[in-house]
Design brief:
Largest sheet: 7 strands, mixed
Helix content: 25-40%
Number of helices: 13
CATH topology of the largest domain: Rossmann fold
Order of helices and strands: EHEHEHEHEHEHEHEHHEEHEEHEHEH
Shape: globular
CATH architecture of the largest domain: 3-Layer(aba) Sandwich
Distance between the termini: 43 Å
Radius of gyration: 21 Å
Strand content: 15-25%
CATH superfamily of the largest domain: Thiamin diphosphate (ThDP)-binding fold, Pyr/PP domains
Number of domains: 2
CATH class of the largest domain: Alpha Beta
Strand order of the largest sheet: 3-2-4-5-7-6-12
Length: about 375
């Protein structure tokens, strides 16, 4: 049994290395710094590279360059660093550069409270790029999830050639707990799909089917590989052709939205006889399950749904899991950054019979099981 005592940040680092990560660049920031520290300890002995950039902007630039050269890359920061990352996140989306970005969230806004956790960056992660293109955002609930979801994040990033976020937070990242790495089934590792040349084919760096990512060749190889942050055609040259632009924009959207089922990760606990479903994510879902277990002992059965993929919004999952229930309760460690997505899913699918209640808290303190029990009981 591979039972270890580790914090979520160490689990992220171990998951990244298990996924084949060979490059990390970052800048120290509480509460994400120990991801950097663990990568600095682990990567060099495995032939990898770990760099501290002069700031967050430079660190993202290093990661982009390393990924274009063919490396699997990881970076980690917190809210203020994500703000600085945003310009180059847009570059990575437009140029289809895979990478995994960990946001160990802390209480905001701005520099906020460095040692207090929250889930206040959720909407920022979804919309932190110019153009509003879809993002993949995964949310772990504990250290074991940090390990497992990091593996998934690298797989999704390689499969779709895009940045993938892990929305951790201080309470998960810096809390040590027992982790049994043998207790979960790990996904097969997905490697980058390289372009296979033949005598009759020329490499076009952004040529792909409508719902797919293009095949890859590294910068600096024998074949010329063009990269640009500007709107481009499949050959990598800048274009103003409306038809070509439209096709590219649609493909960038469709390659993620069409993969929604493959990207959807979750846990559910359906209790027989329950008429209420509590939807949550992140560390709050642990308190939710504790609260619902206590209520069950008192004769009140409440079901739970823990979302581990926040974006793209798992619409099919939310509909199917919510269908049997009269009342939906959404609990978030913020002031309501995800409930709008759930309400939108219900409206779109004409599920107007659902009674939806919400409780949010963002004051630097964890939401307790007692508070969740109170919210559920008052409905």
């Amino acid at each position: 049994m591979a039972l270890s005592f580790m914090e979520g940040n160490e689990a992220v680092a171990r998951g990244a290395i298990a996924a084949g990560c060979t490059f990390f660049a970052g800048y120290p920031i509480t509460p994400a710094t120990t991801i950097f520290a663990n990568m600095l300890t682990m990567l060099p002995s495995k032939g990898g590279i770990c760099i501290q950039g002069e700031d967050e902007i430079a660190s993202m630039g290093y990661c982009i360059g390393a990924s274009m050269a063919g490396k699997k890359v990881l970076t980690a920061t917190s809210g203020p660093g994500i703000s600085l990352y945003s310009e180059q996140i847009s570059f990575a989306i437009g140029s289809e550069i895979p990478m995994v970005i960990v946001d160990v969230q802390r209480l905001g806004p701005s520099t906020g409270s460095a040692t207090r956790g929250a889930d206040g960056d959720v909407q920022f992660l979804r919309w932190c790029n110019t153009g509003g293109f879809p993002m993949v955002v995964l949310a772990p609930k504990d250290a074991l999830d940090c390990y497992l979801l990091t593996l998934h994040a690298f797989n999704f990033s390689e499969m779709l050639r895009c940045p993938v976020f892990i929305a951790s937070n201080k309470e998960i990242g810096m809390t040590r707990e027992s982790v049994d790495l043998d207790s979960v089934k790990l996904p097969p590792i997905i490697e980058r799909k390289y372009f296979q040349s033949n005598q009759n084919s020329n490499y076009l760096p952004f040529e792909a089917a409508q719902n797919s990512a293009p095949d890859f060749l590294p910068i600096g190889d024998r074949t010329l590989v063009r990269q640009t942050s500007s709107t481009h055609a499949p050959d990598g040259y800048i274009t103003i052709d409306p038809n070509v632009i439209a096709q590219t924009q649609e493909r960038l959207i469709n390659k993620i939205e069409s993969a929604q089922d493959k990207l959807t990760l979750y846990e559910s606990n359906h209790r027989k006889g329950a008429d209420t479903l509590v939807i949550s994510y992140g560390v709050t879902s642990r308190a939710v399950e504790d609260a619902c277990s206590k209520l069950e002992k008192n004769g009140h059965r409440i079901s739970t749904l823990t979302l581990k993929t926040l974006f793209p919004v798992p619409q099919k999952l939310i509909c199917e899991e919510s269908a049997p229930y009269r009342r939906i309760v959404v609990i978030e460690m913020n002031m309501g950054q995800y409930i709008d997505n759930i309400e939108r899913v219900f409206f779109k699918n004409k599920m107007h019979d659902k009674k939806i209640d919400f409780y949010g808290q963002m004051n630097g303190v964890l939401i307790t099981p007692a508070k969740i029990m109170e919210v559920i009981s008052n409905g």
